């Protein structure tokens, strides 16, 4: 399908680079266009692709570029859905897809590859990683791909018969999927998010539901029974549907007597699981349902859950220092994520909150801050965070930068406290990406001197 074609790749980044490398080996004529100037760290990748015949245009999006005629546009997930090239492609009847769709259509059907795809507003990375770890513990040949950081197309040429692909799919990726069909589809939960990209909540929900649209009767959909939006999505599914619940004993995966059950089998007691919080119990249940479809034994699941400390930057336990425990939840870039994080603790919390200003309503946290003894407001929205904290009579201190806020938070803390970075905000006011913010937090923890 993707041979001897003329293809425009819109956006460099990781998926653009991998897509260009994959397609250039299949006798395609490729132009890679990125509106930003080439970054110094990407020069080597550009030179590598140039050796493969890829052409480049950096720094602009010329109005007449599509007049050259292309068979496909492969859009980086970060490119806006109303970009002028996307609108013009619709006029010219040029298919607009993304790297995931291209990779899926390139998988050799005769190899019988099983695909598990996971989406949701929150928990998808943890669920994806757990599924991968369960399968790996069982000795299955499995690959971890997708929005979790490994473009799907980078695995295509190394796939062997009966391999398993576990892939996290974001809403930005789902936007340009059409034929993609997993064997097992998991939706963790749905709540309002990414509206600045998706434009409306209704569109966001519709895009998320696309993970289920191509499922057939021999496929499986795994859905959260306690999320009404997810349940509505399941009403039109052609596949077999299996459910998990954190509130009710059901015919599926559920919590009962401080343990996780798969149907009537007691899988593990929650006290033996390192991951904290009800949200992680839900992630675990979703993952168990997925891997049980592939005959993973309970022992393998137990082994992973007793050692798995969580995904980096997602309510990640960093260290215990001088009687305080530090958690890095920098990936909490929306209010819902921070609600989840706050619900995971019973101890007193020093909360580091704030970052990039995009109008987030911090008052949606008011029912979750009973354990918060101090708020450290950081970033460009710190004044609104301070106003929120003071309105609730929570001592709140504003510091523009994380380093200063961290020091103040530590000074205000006592033994037994949790010091939690869960900002409910993106990081773009000060950091290229939120992982850099999380790495800085972890370094600040390392620098704390042990008390005598």
Write the layout of secondary structure elements.
Blueprint: E1 6-10, H1 13-24, E2 29-34, H2 43-51, E3 55-58, E4 72-75, H3 84-92, E5 96-97, H4 99-106, E6 114-119, H5 124-138, E7 142-146, E8 164-168, H6 171-174, E9 184-187, H7 195-198, H8 201-209, E10 220-224, H9 228-234, E11 240-245, E12 253-256, E13 259-262, E14 265-269, H10 278-292, H11 298-305, E15 316-321, E16 324-328, H12 335-343, E17 349-353, E18 372-377, H13 382-391, E19 396-398, H14 402-412, E20 418-421, H15 434-446
Parallel strand pairs: 1-2, 1-4, 2-3, 4-5, 6-8, 6-9, 7-8, 9-10, 10-11, 11-12, 16-20, 17-18, 17-20, 18-19
Antiparallel strand pairs: 12-13, 13-14, 15-16
Sum this structure up briefly:
The protein is an alpha/beta fold and 452 residues long. The protein has helices spanning 13-24, 43-51, 84-92, 99-106, 124-138, 171-174, 195-198, 201-209, 228-234, 278-292, 298-305, 335-343, 382-391, 402-412, 434-446; strands at 6-10, 29-34, 55-58, 72-75, 96-97, 114-119, 142-146, 164-168, 184-187, 220-224, 240-245, 253-256, 259-262, 265-269, 316-321, 324-328, 349-353, 372-377, 396-398, 418-421.
Describe the structure.
By secondary structure, this protein is of the alpha/beta class. It has helices spanning 13-24, 43-51, 84-92, 99-106, 124-138, 171-174, 195-198, 201-209, 228-234, 278-292, 298-305, 335-343, 382-391, 402-412, 434-446; strands spanning 6-10, 29-34, 55-58, 72-75, 96-97, 114-119, 142-146, 164-168, 184-187, 220-224, 240-245, 253-256, 259-262, 265-269, 316-321, 324-328, 349-353, 372-377, 396-398, 418-421. A 9-stranded mixed sheet has the order 7-8-6-9-10-11-12-13-14, sandwiched between helices. The chain has a 6-stranded mixed sheet with strand order 15-16-20-17-18-19. A 5-stranded parallel sheet has the order 3-2-1-4-5. Helix 2 links the parallel strand 2 (29-34) and strand 3 (55-58).
């Amino acid at each position: 399908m993707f041979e001897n074609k003329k293809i425009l790749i819109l956006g460099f980044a990781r998926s653009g680079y991998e897509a260009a490398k994959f397609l250039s080996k299949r006798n395609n004529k490729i132009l890679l266009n990125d509106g930003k100037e080439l970054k110094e760290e990407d020069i080597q990748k550009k030179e590598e692709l140039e050796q493969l015949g890829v052409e480049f245009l950096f720094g602009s999006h010329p109005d007449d570029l599509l007049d050259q005629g292309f068979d496909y546009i492969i859009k980086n997930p970060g490119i806006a859905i109303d970009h002028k090239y996307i609108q013009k492609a619709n006029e010219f009847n040029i298919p607009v897809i993304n790297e995931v769709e291209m990779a899926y259509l390139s998988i050799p059907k005769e190899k019988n590859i099983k695909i598990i795809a996971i989406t949701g507003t929150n928990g998808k990375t943890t669920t994806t990683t757990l599924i991968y770890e369960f399968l790996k513990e069982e000795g299955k040949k499995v690959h971890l791909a997708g929005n979790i950081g490994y473009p799907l197309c980078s695995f295509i040429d190394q796939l062997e018969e009966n391999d398993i692909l576990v892939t996290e799919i974001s809403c930005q990726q789902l936007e340009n999927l059409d034929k993609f069909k997993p064997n097992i589809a998991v939706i963790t939960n749905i709540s309002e998010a990414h509206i600045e990209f998706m434009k409306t909540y209704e569109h966001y929900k519709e895009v998320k539901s696309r993970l289920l649209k191509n499922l057939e009767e021999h496929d499986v959909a795994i859905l959260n029974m306690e999320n009404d939006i997810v349940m509505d999505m399941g009403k039109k599914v052609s596949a077999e549907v299996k459910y998990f619940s954190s509130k009710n004993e059901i015919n599926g995966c559920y919590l009962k007597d401080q343990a996780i059950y798969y149907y009537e089998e007691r899988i593990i007691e929650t006290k033996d699981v390192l991951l904290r919080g009800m949200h992680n119990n839900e992630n675990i249940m979703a993952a168990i349902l997925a891997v049980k479809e592939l005959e993973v034994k309970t022992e393998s699941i137990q082994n992973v859950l007793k050692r798995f400390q969580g995904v980096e930057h997602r309510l990640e336990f960093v260290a215990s220092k001088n009687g305080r425990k530090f958690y890095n939840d920098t990936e909490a870039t929306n209010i819902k994520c921070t609600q989840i994080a706050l619900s995971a603790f019973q101890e007193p919390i020093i909360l580091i909150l704030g970052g990039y200003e995009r109008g987030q309503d911090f008052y949606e946290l008011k029912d979750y801050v009973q354990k918060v003894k101090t708020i450290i407001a950081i970033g460009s929205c710190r004044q609104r965070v301070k106003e929120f904290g003071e309105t609730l009579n929570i001592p709140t201190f504003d510091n523009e930068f994380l380093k200063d806020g961290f020091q103040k938070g530590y000074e205000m803390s006592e033994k037994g406290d949790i010091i939690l970075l869960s900002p409910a905000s993106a990081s773009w006011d000060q950091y290229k990406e939120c992982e850099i913010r999380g790495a800085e937090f972890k370094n600040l923890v390392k620098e704390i001197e042990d008390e005598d």
